[in-house]
Amino acid sequence: TPEGPARRGRLRAWRGWRPLLAAALVAGAGVGAWFALPVRTVQVGGNARLSEARVQELAGLREGFGWLYYGAWRARGLLDSPWVASARVVRVFPDTVRVEVTERVPRVRLARPDGSVVVAAADGTVLPGAALSGSLPLVSGWGPDRLPDVLRVLGALSGYNVQSVVFTPTGLSVKLPSGSVWSGDLQALLKYAGSVSMYPNSDISIYPWGVSVQE
User: Fold this and answer.
1) Chain centroid offset of residue 46 CA
2) Residue 72 CB neighbour total at 10 angstroms
3) From CA 78, how far away is CA 52, in angstroms rounded?
4) For 22-73, what is each residue's pLDDT tens digit?
5) What is the pLDDT of residues 117-164, one digit of tens each?
6) What does the alpha-carbon distance between residue 87 and residue 105 come to, in Å, rounded to a whole number?
7) Are 115 and 197 in a shared domain?
8) Count of domains in the chain?
9) Residue 99 sits in which domain range?
């Protein structure tokens, strides 16, 4: 019948596809089995402040769990710690998970209105338990919070060993090892920050139209 050759053609095509389909099923089963295998080793890198045990706890990792049941929502627990700026969790064949964290670094001491002093990172995040090192600039002031402005200024004056910064609604006062810098205009201060080295041991006032120097 006319259907005979067509049917035989379909059967030959099916026989040709069967090995490929079987290989795909085997590969899929292998990948599934790999993800179902228990994790026997957890490696942690990039941590200095946080212990390996604390990083594993934040990530929801424990030896012996199945990767198949480990969701990204567990890894996000790492960011619950103010010390963790970013993190990456990678499965290493066949039974290892590696966690790489980038920790925040203390940048300033921040005097709060209640008289307490805390340590903050360069992005303003308060770092609980950080040592109140005297080598960190002391930031204080009153009025609306200007910590983001202060941190930008400290970045611009990073080579001048700033000792303290006092902020008010009308300006910023920066104390250097010898001399000081004041400005009521943030953009002007950032613009002329590079000229501070021209006036050592001086008290400098920076305005949008220029710089005033007092010896």
Assistant:
1) 12
2) 7
3) 12
4) 444 444 444 444 455 677 888 999 999 999 999 988 988 776 666 655 556 6
5) 999 999 999 999 999 999 999 999 999 999 999 999 999 999 899 999
6) 15
7) yes
8) 3
9) 38-103
Residue with tokens 């940048």: 107
Same domain, yes or no: 55 and 140: no
* Residue at token pair 């001048």: 160
Do both 93 and 67 map to the same domain? yes
- On whether the CB atoms of residues 151 and 130 are closer than 8 A, the answer is no
Note the helical H segments in 37-60.
Answer: 52-59
Q: How many CA atoms lie within 13 A of 198 on its CB side?
A: 8
Q: Are the C-beta atoms of 207 and 183 separated by less than 8 Å?
A: yes
- Are 127 and 153 found together in one domain? yes
Angstrom CA distances, 132 to 111, 128, 178, stand at 11, 11, 23
Q: How far apart are the C-alpha atoms of 80 and 101, rounded to whole Å?
A: 13
